[in-house]
Amino acid sequence: MFTSLELCAGAGGGQALGLEKAGFEHEALVEIDSHCCNTLRANRPSWNVVEDDLRVFKERAADFKGVDLVAGGLPCPPFSLAGKRLGERDKAFGAAQHARLGSGRFWLQHFLADAQPAAASLLHRRAGLERRFGRDCISDCELVGRVR
Question: 131 to each of 76, 79, 87, 111, how far by Cα in Å?
Fold first, then answer.
């Protein structure tokens, strides 16, 4: 059986259920929204649902070292369709904003370095399909030695 750590799990829609159906055992599903966490707990009482902010939970990432998969629908306001799509020109792209708002790339890099999973799956809607964003994610993975 494979193991997973899911970040920004939401209410357990497609990704968490799909991973379960594929045979993954969730080590933890991390979500900040209490309503989503309550839904996860009600629908799957056996899942380890962690109600936490990634800025706090990141300190525990090494506790999941060796998990097979780190997955998540991570936030990235500068590239999001809901944002202004300014990319690196967006003020939110700056290092100071990463800590406050978060960035899919930042979190991916951080959790890959600490949890050292065998694989990662970053769900990033349409913005994640853009060539530049995809190349940048691969570069981030190379920085932490996670591209083979």
Answer: 15, 12, 12, 22
Give how many domains the chain has, as a whole number. Answer: 1
Please state at what angle helix 104-115 crosses helix 131-143, rounded to 10 degrees.
Answer: 30
- The verdict on residue 148 lying in a domain is no
Question: For 93-138, how does the pLDDT look when each residue is reduced to its tens digit (9 = 90+)?
Answer: 554 344 444 455 566 677 888 888 888 887 655 544 455 555 555 5
Residue 109 lies inside a defined structural domain of this protein = yes
Structural domain of residue 120, as residue ranges?
A: 2-143
Helix, strand, coil share of the chain (percent; to 5): 50, 15, 35
Note if the pTM is more than 0.90: no
**Contact call for residues 137 and 143 (beta carbons, < 8 A):** no
- What is the set of active-site residues? 76
**Is 109:144 a contact under the CB 8 Å cutoff?**
yes
Residue 92 domain-assigned (yes or no): yes
20-38 tens-digit pLDDT: 999 999 999 998 889 999 9
Output the six-digit token pair for 91.
């003020």
CATH code for the domain of 58:
3.40.50.150
